[in-house]
Amino acid sequence: MEFSSLVNTVDILLTSDSLAMHIGVACGKATVVLVGPTSPWELDVFGSGEILHSNIECLVCYLSKCDKVVTCMNTLSPEYVLSKVQLYLS
Hints:
There is one protein chain. By secondary structure, the chain is α/β, with parallel strands linked by helices. The chain has one domain (2-86). It has 3 helices and 3 strands, in the order αβαββα. The protein has helices spanning 2-7, 19-26, 78-86; strands at 12-16, 30-34, 49-52. Strands 1-2-3 form a 3-stranded parallel beta sheet, sandwiched between helices. Strand 1 (12-16), helix 2 (19-26) and strand 2 form a beta-alpha-beta unit. The relative contact order is 0.18.
């Protein structure tokens, strides 16, 4: 319950595919989700944010560790993520 209350105090939530994402969406918070090895097509923010993911070939591998040089997470540049977050800070 404490975590839900904390999430409810933010203006925007930047998170991964996690419990925080689901709580943020349930609280009606603008939620920007960074998706790595899980499927972005299995997630929904119901119009209150965006799901960010790469388009690399091995996306949706569900592996907890990656041995690739270019990974699904490092293709999401900080500048790109920040630009998406800023859309919801107005």
